[in-house]
Q: What sequence folds into this?
C-alpha cells in the first residue's frame, strides 16, 4: 500500500453531473501518485482528524472530459453534511479496480462509477485492520 495526503480543490462536476462528489487533490498529491498506473483504485481515506472511511480514487486524465492535466480524484463512500475545501485529506491506495477508459454516454459512466464504488467497498471489507494504520493517526 502507499498513500498521499494533501489539500484539495476541484472541478465541481463530480456531484453535479455524476452524483459522485470527489475531492480533486492538489499538485503535491498528483506528483506523489505519479508512479501509479492510471485507473481506478480503492482504499481508505480520512478528512482532517475525522474517521477513516472507504473510498475509490481515479488517477489519470479523465478521458470523458478531455483533461489536459493528470488528476487524482478521491470519492469517499460517505454522506457529508457539506464540503471540506482546504482540509487535509489522506488516502491509502490498497487495490486496483480497472483501467481508465472513455464511455459512450454519461449514463454509462455513471453506471460504471456505481459498480466501481460497490467493488471497492466490498474489497475494503477484507482490509478493515488498515483503518488503524499510523498513516492516519500520525500528525502530518
A:
Amino acid at each position: 500500500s502507499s498513500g498521499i495526503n494533501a489539500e484539495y480543490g476541484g472541478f465541481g462536476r463530480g456531484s453535479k453531473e455524476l452524483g459522485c462528489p470527489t475531492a480533486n487533490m492538489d499538485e503535491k498529491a498528483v506528483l506523489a501518485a505519479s508512479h501509479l498506473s492510471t485507473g481506478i483504485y480503492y482504499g481508505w481515506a480520512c478528512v482532517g482528524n475525522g474517521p477513516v472511511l472507504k473510498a475509490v480514487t481515479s488517477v489519470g486524465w479523465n478521458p470523458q472530459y478531455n483533461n489536459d492535466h493528470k488528476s487524482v480524484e478521491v470519492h469517499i463512500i460517505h454522506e457529508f453534511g457539506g464540503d471540506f475545501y482546504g482540509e487535509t485529506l489522506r488516502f491509502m491506495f490498497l487495490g486496483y479496480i480497472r483501467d481508465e477508459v472513455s464511455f459512450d454516454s454519461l449514463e454509462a459512466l455513471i453506471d460504471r462509477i456505481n459498480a466501481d464504488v460497490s467493488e471497492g467497498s466490498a474489497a475494503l471489507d477484507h482490509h478493515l485492520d488498515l483503518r488503524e494504520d499510523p498513516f492516519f493517526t500520525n500528525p502530518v
